[in-house]
From TrEMBL:
Major enzyme class: transferase
Annotated source species: Spinacia oleracea
Gene3D superfamilies attached to this UniProt entry: Nucleoside diphosphate kinase-like domain
Binding site residues for ATP: 9, 57, 85, 91, 102, 112
Protein name: Nucleoside diphosphate kinase
Family: Belongs to the NDK family.
Alphabetical list of PROSITE patterns matching this protein: NDPK, NDPK_LIKE
Residues of the active site: 115 (pros-phosphohistidine intermediate)
Length: 148
């Protein structure tokens, strides 16, 4: 079953959106496989966002991610990478549809509350980076009510 890496960024934590975000993924039917509350340091944030290192906003992005604790999670389910991105909404919250997390709770691209892996291979890399000891294996008892 597909897995994705989701991070609630420092603004999402500070604004008390952790429960709301977890609720949205749970209600959709996805399963939570790993969760930790963590302060990341600069080298770690730079590694996570290595693909963006040439972007002009890279330094500000890293400063933002290290500015407070984040919630790192692994969610599992059919199509969770792409559908997780739909639940999150467009990168720029002003372009995110109402009903999405960023569409409902954010305004500025530099304070957009949440990160979600953009492809299955980046999800695999990000899960390995954030959860090097692996994740818990379990199956929800609701499985047969969610999947045909
Ligand atoms: P994320 O990785 O956080 O899920 O975001 P994304 O794929 O939707 O967007 P990406 O292009 O990978 O950018 C990563 C994060 O960088 C910040 N950003 N700031 N100031 C800017 O122009 C700008 N552009 C991007 C955002 O926090 C974005 O989520």
């Amino acid at each position: 079953m597909e897995q994705t890496f989701i991070m609630i960024k420092p603004d999402g934590v500070q604004r008390g959106l952790v429960g709301e975000i977890i609720c949205r993924f749970e209600k959709k039917g996805f399963s939570l496989k790993a969760l930790k509350f963590v302060n990341v340091d600069r080298p770690f944030a730079e590694k996570h966002y290595a693909d963006l290192s040439a972007k002009p906003f890279f330094n500000g992005l890293v400063e933002y991610i290290v500015s407070g604790p984040v919630v790192a999670m692994v969610w599992e389910g059919k199509g969770v990478v792409a559908t997780g991105r739909k639940l999150i909404g467009a990168t720029n919250p002003l372009a995110s549809e109402p009903g999405t997390i960023r569409g409902d709770f954010a305004i500025d691209i530099g304070r957009n509350v949440i990160h979600g892996s953009d492809a299955v291979d980046s999800a695999t890399k990000e899960i390995a980076l954030w959860f090097p000891d692996g994740v818990v294996h379990w199956q929800s008892s609701l499985h047969s009510w969610i999947y045909e």
